[in-house]
Write a structure and sequence with these properties.
Layout (H helix, E strand, L loop, with lengths): L1 E2 L13 H72 L6 H69 E2 L1
Antiparallel strand pairs: 1-2
Helix pairs in contact: 1-2
Length: 166
């Protein structure tokens, strides 16, 4: 068997020890960079997911405050109807005045219920997006690990072929 120079950085015959010592660290550098890339990807996914969850909670809070405002407007509108009817001497407990009052109450309550459902759907969608962000980070991390394993295998194969010649 004849030992030849490695194309992976083992150093050519006659070169200084700097190249040989650097090539001794090549597998460790490969592993370190792979792990750093994997952990960075996973961490970025988690941070993006956490930001998405915070945005979902903030959005839900805003939607709930908007619903509360709608409820206050409904109460104000119904109070105005009762006050106007009372001021004119109309009995709001019967006839068309009662129907108008109930119709207004139904319509405004329906708007509030729909706003609540939309808020819940938006919140669920935002949380789902946050979970997708975290999964994406984990998939990138796994890809980094697989890529690093493939690079290590390639490095070892090239080193073995270059080191020993039959």
């Amino acid at each position: 068997m004849t030992i030849i120079a490695s194309s992976a950085g083992a150093g050519a015959a006659g070169t200084g020890g700097a190249m040989a010592s650097l090539s001794a660290f090549a597998p460790y550098l490969l592993v370190a960079s792979t792990l750093f890339s994997a952990f960075s990807s996973a961490s970025a996914g988690k941070k993006k997911a956490a930001a998405g969850r915070r945005a979902a909670i903030a959005g839900l809070t805003t939607d709930r405050l908007r619903e509360r405002g709608m409820k206050l407007q409904q109460d104000s509108a119904l109070s105005t109807i009762r006050a106007n009817a009372g001021a004119t001497g109309v009995d709001i407990g019967q006839g068309s005045a009662m129907q108008a009052y109930l119709q207004t109450a139904r319509e405004t309550e329906l708007e509030i219920v729909m706003a609540h459902r939309v808020a819940d759907a938006n919140f669920a969608a935002r949380l789902s997006g946050a979970s997708d962000d975290e999964a994406e980070g984990n998939q990138k991390a796994f890809g980094s690990l697989l890529g690093g394993a493939a690079d290590m295998f390639s490095y070892k194969s090239k080193k073995d072929r270059a080191t020993f010649k039959a």
